[in-house]
Amino acid sequence: MLSYFIVFLISCLCCRAGEYLMDKKKRNISFICFIIAVAIVSIMAGVRDYTIGTDISTYGHWLFLEARKKLGLYNFILHHREIDILYSCFVYIVAQFFKSEHWLYFYTGVWIYGFALAGIMQYKRYASVSWIWVCYLLLLYGDTLNAMRQCMAMSLGIWAFHFAIEKKYVKYVFAVVISCLFHITAVVFFGIWLIYEIIKQRNDFIVKSGIFIGLTFALLIYNKILVILIKWGLFNEKFERYLTTDISLTSINPILIRIPFLIIILMFYHFFLLGRKNIKEHEKNNIKLERIIGSFIILMIFFEIIIAEMRSVNVTLYRISLYFCIFRCIAMGRVVKVISNNNRLIVKTTILLLLGIIWVYQNVYQGNNDIYPFTSQILGIY
């Protein structure tokens, strides 16, 4: 456990230094700090033993060994059609340059954490980048060591979402399509985009309530929708593993570990949406966008809670909630940025304690993702 926390601390301090230097307009030095922040967690992902992360044995290990046989990229993809095409390409390319499988996990980390931090930085105007990064590492790092394909798709989609905010829709669609070629579940980003556009057009309680009720209803008839999509050929047979036999949203754990974040937001709800007082006339358009993004983020957190509840009926389906977890991280960064100095230390301490408890509970007590204890023969950690 200490190994993770030391690496997280170094990475977060580098990220904070980068954020500070960026505010001081020292972009070149800040960029180096951000690179180090990404590199340190990528190195940890690369030097880990092959027992750290469940999906290494599921597809990572044997796919790399197959790629080392140098059958040719086309034949490699053809023989492994069950694996998403761009992930196969990624593994094949790495395997041609490096004999050690550790390089695959290092470069997987570079992709995941590089795009994730680049995406997080798009919110620097609305939230604290370094605090989003703290939340990201403590809430999602374990999943990145396990669900590698999905996290590669997810990080690219996180970065690409700024295109949707900036109305660069062609670029956003292209990036999401690329994400889907790493893991098809990235189609979720089209739904996230649709919800953002709806809120942008009409940001009121009725619309947001309608969206929330609509999603809840869709989950209740989820099986029927998926069966139709598979029958129509929009999704292939791989998606049959997401089918469930009984919808029963009774698990309390996913709610208990997410509700405290909502409580923190609600305590500072006014500042969360508006950001600051004494708004000048020429800033009103920016404040309107901040309010839209704030409302959107809160709705995404509600969605994460509902979708995470699906763990009780299908563990595989639970992974869809990961696409929404990043918005919980952004929300905490937003709270830290907008609250007054008098409350900031208390709130930061509360968030850190909450994140620490959740990390220990999920990774040590529950054994999520098989990442604890951390071992590395390369570093002599057994």
Query: Quick one: how many beta strands?
Result: 0
Enumerate how many helices there are, as a single number: 19
Work out the radius of gyration: 21 Å
Detail the poorly predicted runs: 277-283
Helix content: over 70%
Mean of residue pLDDT?
Answer: 87
User: Mind describing the biggest β-sheet?
Assistant: none
As a percent range, the share of strand residues is: under 5%
- Distance from first to last alpha carbon: 12 Å
| Topology pattern, helix = H, strand = E | HHHHHHHHHHHHHHHHHHH
Structural class: mainly alpha
Gross morphology: globular
Q: Could you write a compact summary of the structure shown?
A:
The protein has 382 residues and is mainly α. The protein has helices spanning 2-23, 27-47, 54-67, 73-79, 85-97, 102-120, 129-144, 148-165, 169-180, 188-201, 205-220, 222-231, 253-256, 259-267, 269-274, 284-308, 315-318, 322-338, 341-365. The chain is globular.
Report on the structure:
Helices cover 71% and strands 0% of the residues. About 2% of the residues have low confidence. With 382 residues, it is mostly helical. It is globular. Helix 7 packs parallel to helix 19.
